[in-house]
Amino acid sequence: MRVVVIGAGAAGLVAAAEAARRHADVQLLEKNNKVGVKILMSGGTRCNLTHDTDAKGITKHFRHARRFLQPSVGAFSPSDVVAMFRQENVPTKVESTGKVFPVSDRALHARDALVAIATHAGVKIRTGQPVIGVRPSGHRWCVQLNHQEIECDRVIVTAGGMSYPGCGTTGDAYPWLKKLGHTIVKPRPALVPLTGGSHWTHELSGLTLEDCVAEVHARNKSGKSAVLAARRSSWLFTHVGFSGPAAMDISHAVTAAESLDQIELCVDLVPGLTREEIQHVLSDRKGGRGRQHIASLLAEWLPQRLATALVDLDPSLKVNSSASQMSRSSRNQLVQRIKQLPLDIHGTRGFPKAEVTAGGVKLSEVEPKTMRSRLADGLFIAGEVLDVDGPIGGYNFQAAFSTGRAAGAAAAMKKG
Predict the structure, then answer these.
(1) What would you report as the CA-atom Rg of the chain, rounded to the nearest whole angstrom?
(2) Residue 286: which pLDDT band, with cuts at 50, 70 and 90?
(3) What is the distance in angstroms between the CA of the first residue and the CA of the last residue of the chain?
(4) What angle do helix axes 395-411 and 66-75 make, rounded to 10 degrees?
C-alpha cells in the first residue's frame, strides 16, 4: 500500500508514522525546508502538547466539532499522547492550568520526537516539496508537484489551515479539496488577539488581569442579548487592543460575526465578587473606609493603574475622590463598569497572529472514525485543514494528533 501524506505538521507526522507502522510505503511531503515549523513556534516555543484531562474533557471544548472528534480522540487520548512522547525520551509536566508541556520547555524536543517516530517507522520525509494539486488516477491517486507526479493508493491531506502563514500554512489544500467536491467552510482566524479599545485602554498596555470573565454578546434590538462566547482566564491590555487567553479564546465569536455592529464585548473584572459585595465596600462608612480614595479601595481587587483609570472615566469624580463623596448614581455606574465593562472591538490581528484556523473542510463530508473522505475513495483529511478549532490549552494539538493517527491507521488498511 503506497500512501502519500501532504504536510509535515503535528497531524501529518503522526499520520505518516501510523501508516508506516502498519506496513504501508509512506512518503511525507513538506513544502518548507524543515518539518514541523509551526510546532516549533507553538506555546511560545514551549509546545503545549495536550491538556491534563480525558477524551471527553477534550472534545467537550470543541463546540460543533465535539461529536466528530469523539471517535478519534477516544482512540488516542491525552494519556496516549503523553505516553508517545515519553517513549521518545520527552517527559512531560502538567502546569496549574492543566496544560501539558515537555519538561524541557522546548518545542524542538517535541518536534524532533515526532520526526524520530516517523523515520523509525520507515516514513520517507521529503522537504522542499510544495504540492500543487491532487487528482484521482483510475483507482489510484496522483499527487502533483512542480516538476513531478507521484502515484499512490491513498492520500492523506494534513496541510493545515491559514494561521501563522509565515510557517507555510497558507490554505494551499482548500482549492484541491474543493475541486474534489468538498465544501470549505469559510476559514477565519481563531485564538487571535483582538484589536479595539480606546485611548484609556491603550494607556494600560502591558497590564494583565490574572482573573476575569470575558464575554461576546449578540446585540439585540429588544435589549436582550445572547452570549456567543465566554471565557474565564487572564486578560492582557495591549497598545492596539486585547490579548491573553480570555481574549483569544473568545476571538472565534468575533471573527464569526457578519458585522462587528452585531456584537459587543464586555469583561467582568472581578468574577470572584458579586455586585452586592462591591456595593457594600464602596458604601461602607465604618472603620474610615468612607474617607479612603475610591481608587485605593478598588486597588484591593484590581491593579492600581486600572483602578485609577476606572475612576477617571466618571467626569464627576477626581483621582483623590473619597468613597463618601460618590453619589449613588456614580457608585452604581462604577459597579456596573467593574462587573460588565464594555470594550470596543475593531477586529482581530488576523491570520498572521492567529494560533489556529476556524473553518475548513466541512465535517459531515468526512468519516469521524477514519478521517476518510465521504466524497472521494482513497482520500483522507486530518488536522487543522478540517473545520475544527478549540480553545487555548493543548486542545488543538490533541485534535491534530488524534485525527492524524486515525487517518494513518485507516489509510494503511488493505482495500476490500
Answers:
(1) 25
(2) low
(3) 13
(4) 70
C-alpha separations of 175 from 133, 161, 197, 350 in Å = 8, 12, 37, 21
CATH number listed for the domain at residues 2-188+356-411: 3.50.50.60
Query: 353: which strand partners?
Result: none
Residue 247 has what pLDDT? 98
Nearest alpha carbon to residue 292 among 302, 303, 281: 281
Judge residue 309's burial from the number of C-beta atoms within 10 Å of its C-beta, 0-12 exposed, 13-18 middle, 19 or more buried. buried
Q: Distance between CA 160 and CA 172 in Å, rounded?
A: 8
pLDDT digits (tens, 9 = 90+) for 355-390: 999 999 999 999 999 999 999 999 999 999 999 999
E strands of 269-378, at which residues?
341-343, 345-348, 356-361
* DSSP label at residue 364: G
Backbone phi and psi for residue 93, each to the nearest 5 degrees, phi listed first: -135, 155
Mean pLDDT is lowest, of 68-72, 210-214, 284-288, 337-341, for 284-288
H or E element in which residue 50 lies: strand 50-51
Residue 164 sits at the vertex; the CA angle it makes with 160 and 170, to the nearest 5 degrees, is: 50
pLDDT at 416 over 60: no
User: Is residue 403 classed as helix, strand or coil in its secondary structure?
Assistant: helix
* Residue 320 confidence (pLDDT): 75
Query: What are the boundaries of each domain within the chain?
Result: 2-188+356-411, 193-349
306 pLDDT band (50/70/90 cuts)?
Answer: very high
- Amino acid at the residue 269: L
Q: In whole angstroms, give the CA distance from residue 143 to residue 135.
A: 7
Alpha-carbon span 308 to 37, nearest angstrom? 43
Q: Tell me the DSSP string of 282-308.
A: HH--GGGGGGSBHHHHHTTTS-HHHHH
Mean pLDDT of the region 84-94: 98
Q: Which residue has the cell 469624580?
A: 317
The C-alpha angle with vertex 62 and arms to 21 and 39, in degrees rounded to 5, equals 50
